[in-house]
Structures are given as C-alpha cells and as structure tokens.
Write a structure and sequence with these properties.
By secondary structure, this protein is α/β, with parallel strands linked by helices. Helix content is 25%, strand content 29%. The protein is built from seven helices and nine strands. It has a nine-stranded mixed sheet. Bound molecules: zinc ion.
C-alpha cells in the first residue's frame, strides 16, 4: 500500500461517561487514546462511537477504512444487527478487523469466529506479562521477549475461539492463569487479530509496547493487493 493505512477506531464509549475513574484515565475516551497511538505510528484515523447515527459505521466510514479496530464491553447488545452485518461483510471482503479486550464478546467478532468466544475473568489487580510466541510475526516487530503490562484484569483459558491461524502472544497472570492473548485469523479475504489487554480501569493503552502492537496489528490487518476470488461455474483455462 502506497499510502498510510486508514483505521476506523470504534468504541462503545459508555464506561468513560459512567465511571469517573475511567474518564480520568482516558479523558479523550478509549477511542481517543487508541487513535493517538495509531497516529503516532503514522496511520490515518477516524473514530466512531455507539451513540452516533448508525453507530458511526456509515457507508462513508466503511468505504474509507482499511481496518476497523473495535472496543466494546457494556453494550454489545445495543449494536444493531444490520450494522454488524455491514462490518462482517466488509471484513470478508478484505477490510481488517482488530478486536480489543472485551470485544471478544462483540457481535462482529463472535460472528466471524462462529464460537461462544467465552473465557474466564477476574478483576483482582493481577499482574499480566505477555510472552511473544511468534517472534517473526509482523505484529511482534520492535517488541522484546515479553511485555510487562502490570496490573490488569485477568482473562484465562479456556478461551472458546477457533484455533488461531497464528498465535502471536500468550499472557501469564499472577493468579496462575494463562491466555492466548494475540490471535491472528483470516476469514474470506479479511485479516482478523484479537488482542487481549485494555481493561477500562487501567491505563493500558498508554503502555508503549501495547501502543506498538496496536500500530503493528493495524498495518498487518490492512488489505493486500491480492487477486479477487472468482466463484461459480467456470470454463477450463487449459486445452480441451
Ligand atoms: Zn475488562
């Protein structure tokens, strides 16, 4: 791609309005913090939130975006099914999708995975250390052997997702749990990455390595210029 990757950062934007602690950590909203990380990384960004018309998932924004990055938690059920269908259709057609933290339960991610996407969790100030288990993967570029995230919500296995095409990160928590925290998939022509950290009551999206992963994931998930698949009845290409 000869131009900057374009990322539509989608956030339900409810915790920031309900919980002063979250608003204090992310005064510009979680989407604002994520957007700043992506802009620092040289990407073009638009943001969209649940309460905008069409949840901000307008035709114009979807046409513009190479990648959709999604944060949601309290209000998955309020996302209209037709908006979800538009997003899923785009992803199958080649738009990248990056699901962050509690977006494991978001409608688009669940639909793309086809499983419950359920997991184990605990809000107990566990410390999280993320191990890079695919050091050659583009999403791990520029990282060390581990990311020491610090205090975070715990997510534990079993994480009910299909086996990832590529597993990039595994998290360890002080409670003893482990979790597949960086999972890469393709569905149709689209690339999908799930990235675990980012509970709203911790300043995780200000962590330099987490910000680097956001940039790397957006770059990786952006569509490539590969051939468009042709389906249906076909004439032979060779001799007859
Ligand atoms: Zn959380």
């Amino acid at each position: 791609m000869n131009r900057a990757v374009r990322v539509l950062v989608w956030n339900e934007h409810r915790h920031e309005q309900k919980n002063p602690k979250v608003a204090g950590i992310y005064p510009e909203g979680i989407h604002g913090e994520i957007a700043s990380a992506l802009r620092e990384g040289g990407l073009e960004v638009r943001t969209a939130t649940l309460d905008e018309p069409d949840h901000g998932l307008t035709q114009d924004n979807l046409d513009w975006a190479d990648v959709i990055m999604w944060w949601g938690h309290l209000a998955h059920g309020e996302v209209a099914d037709e908006a979800v269908s538009r997003v899923v259709e785009r992803v199958l057609g080649g738009t990248g999708f990056v699901a962050l933290h509690s977006a494991h339960f978001s409608k688009p991610f669940k639909r793309l995975m086809g499983t419950s996407c359920d997991l184990k969790w605990r809000e107990g100030d566990d410390h999280e250390r993320i191990w890079v288990v695919a050091p050659a993967h583009p999403i791990a570029e520029g990282l060390g052997e581990t990311i020491e995230v610090g205090p975070e919500e715990m997510y534990g296995e079993f994480f009910d997702v299909p086996p990832p095409d590529e597993l990039v990160f595994v998290s360890w928590f002080t409670g003893g749990e482990v979790f597949r925290s960086g999972a890469a998939y393709t569905r149709g022509r689209g690339r999908i990455f799930y990235f675990r950290p980012g509970h709203e009551t911790y300043p995780t999206y200000r962590h330099p390595d987490v910000r680097r992963v956001l940039v790397n994931a957006a770059r990786w998930a952006a569509p490539t210029d590969g051939p468009k698949p042709v389906f249906g009845n076909a004439k032979p290409l060779e001799g007859r």
